[in-house]
Specification:
Length: 544
């Protein structure tokens, strides 16, 4: 096949790393093309909470590189192929530069309150190291406004994912009531003005898409990668299939793979992931099917962390659709525990969701059961059940399992009755004392932020003693696999011998992440994507 087109960079996938890389290349005088096999732009970044965990970034005035380093090393632990020290240092150095670059490009980013998930660890931050795209009116995208991917589980409303925890407290605290009033006012204003403001993944990806369009970055939707072109041992371009057929696009400086993981590839999940597994439990975009990762592996790319995913334990409605991510924003409220079939608690219900998913598998607790005392549904929202609304439809359709006694509830769920009642009694003792002796729930600032400040003595611990009692099946849902091809501090894809594949770079969920098998704070996946997209483009063009 003759080369029909040539760019300095060809970028596969349209997540946050892709636009960052394309803009960085353009700023250095290079040319970049973004190709996306789906009909909609944004990849799983558009489906996400739309937040970036970047330590010591320019929007923080209360962080330091030393504190960030201490925290990252404490949480990630020993160096690995995914996370060698040299790559951690590059992340700490280049992440803040990437954020400043996007700000300079006119991308409106704001700091949001989201404490580090292990805020009590050395270097942990109680306010958090997370930034997000400011609410974005997708009408500003013009003809592209309806080409932005959207996750059906997030409401198409002017609200950021960081605001959801406050909204769960709308019946309990003034902060929650104010959050509800703000949302109501925004909705009324948008209806009056015709705006279509969005938060979460649509805010960050909408703003990045707008920046790309302003910079005249070519973006080709419905363009599928079918092969990586090489000359000798060097990657020189890509073969694609689009409406016009198959053709080759040459890449003078390199190809950046940002095509996601393999969450929707059952064969790969069964090969690499813990059991049981299902593509029905993932909430990523439909294009997250793993074939691009397989192409890189066929070229000799090394892999790491393939057993991991960004686990977000949650529920499914009876028809199999999304019922909610519950850990920790809802399960961290008082009067809730999550137990396995043995009746024992799985872990810290107010802690990091990725760790909780790992614990579900380690304990053989798939599914687990969220146990909700009667006060939960009176005080707080839970997934599809808004606070104060009738629970009868959710009992009738089977989403909620209900009983007036704990013993009866356990029998209906197939949970060991003796183990369960003993566990509830033990937990109720913790609720009375305010100290969770088993999992330290409510001891950290992050845990407390997930709870109810009006609940004493611990915002996260409340007894389970007043019937009726409810149970909801909890599955190890995910927002992407978090293992993949190994890259170095320049985002170059590495072979099993540790040497880079010339001309091939990667970022995002297709890679083994710098945080390895952990999740230190809200937005760690997208934060890594933006950082390594920025690094890759600059390295390809000789700027670092």
């Amino acid at each position: 096949m003759a080369h029909e087109e040539t760019f300095d960079l060809v970028i596969v996938g349209s997540g946050c790393a892709s636009v960052t890389a394309a803009l960085a290349a353009k700023s250095l005088g290079g040319s970049a093309l973004i190709i996306e096999k789906q009909a909609l732009f944004g990849g799983s970044s558009a489906y996400s909470g739309g937040i970036l965990w970047i330590p010591n970034n320019p929007l923080l005035d209360d962080d330091t590189e030393d504190a960030s380093r201490a925290y990252l090393n404490a949480i990630v632990g020993e160096p690995s192929k995914a996370s060698p020290i040299i790559k951690r240092e590059a992340f700490l150095r280049e992440g803040p530069r990437a954020i400043q670059f996007l700000l300079d490009q006119g991308v409106n980013l704001v700091r949001v309150f989201w404490p580090d998930y292990y805020s009590s660890a050395p270097g942990g931050h109680e306010y958090g190291r997370t930034v997000a795209g400011a609410l974005f009116d997708i009408n500003e995208l013009g003809e592209w406004r309806d080409r932005l991917g959207v996750f059906s589980g997030f409401p198409a409303l002017p609200v950021g994912s960081h605001e959801f925890v406050d909204l769960t407290l709308a019946k309990r605290t003034w902060k929650g009531r104010i959050a509800g009033m703000k949302l109501g006012a925004r909705m009324a204003w948008d209806k009056l003005t015709g705006k279509r403001r969005r938060g979460s993944g649509n805010a960050i990806q909408g703003r990045l898409l707008q920046a790309a369009l302003k910079a005249a970055i070519p973006i080709r939707l419905e363009t599928e990668l079918i092969g990586i072109e090489t000359e000798g041992e060097k990657v020189t371009g890509v073969r694609v299939r689009d409406a016009s057929g198959e053709h080759v696009i040459k890449a003078n400086r390199g190809v950046l793979l940002n095509a996601g993981g393999f969450s929707r590839n059952l064969k790969m999940r069964e090969q690499f992931q813990p059991k049981p597994t299902s593509v029905d439990w993932t909430q990523v975009n439909p294009g997250d099917t793993g074939e691009v990762m397989q192409m890189a592996m066929a070229l000799g790319a090394d892999t790491d962390c393939m057993e991991e995913a960004w686990w977000t334990p949650g529920s499914l409605l009876p028809d199999g659709t999304y019922g909610g991510f519950h850990v920790p924003g809802e399960s961290g409220k008082p009067h809730v525990i999550i137990v396995g079939p043995d009746g024992k608690r799985v872990g810290n219900e107010a802690g990091a969701y990725m760790e909780f998913g790992q614990r579900m598998y380690a304990k053989g607790a798939v599914p687990s059961y969220a146990i909700l005392e009667s006060r939960v549904l009176s005080y707080y929202s839970w997934g599809p059940i808004m606070v104060g609304t009738s629970v009868k439809p959710f009992i009738d359709n089977g989403y909620l399992i209900a009983d007036d006694t704990l013993e009866g509830l356990a029998r209906k769920c197939g949970i060991d009755v003796a183990g369960f009642t003993a566990e509830v009694a033990r937990f109720n003792g913790f609720a009375a004392s305010g100290v969770d002796e088993d999992f330290q729930r409510g001891a950290s600032f992050h845990n407390q932020a997930m709870g109810d400040p009006n609940n004493k003595p611990n915002p996260s611990l409340g007894a389970i003693e007043r019937g009726p009692f409810y149970a909801v099946k909890i599955w190890p849902m995910d927002v992407g696999t978090s293992g993949g091809i190994v890259t170095d501090e320049y985002a170059r894809v590495l072979k099993t011998d540790g040497k880079p594949i010339a001309g091939l770079y990667a970022a995002g969920n297709i890679t083994a992440p710098v945080v390895a098998g952990t999740y230190p704070g809200a937005g760690a996946s997208l934060g890594g994507g933006v950082t390594w997209g920025f690094v890759a483009a600059r390295h390809m063009l000789g700027a670092n």
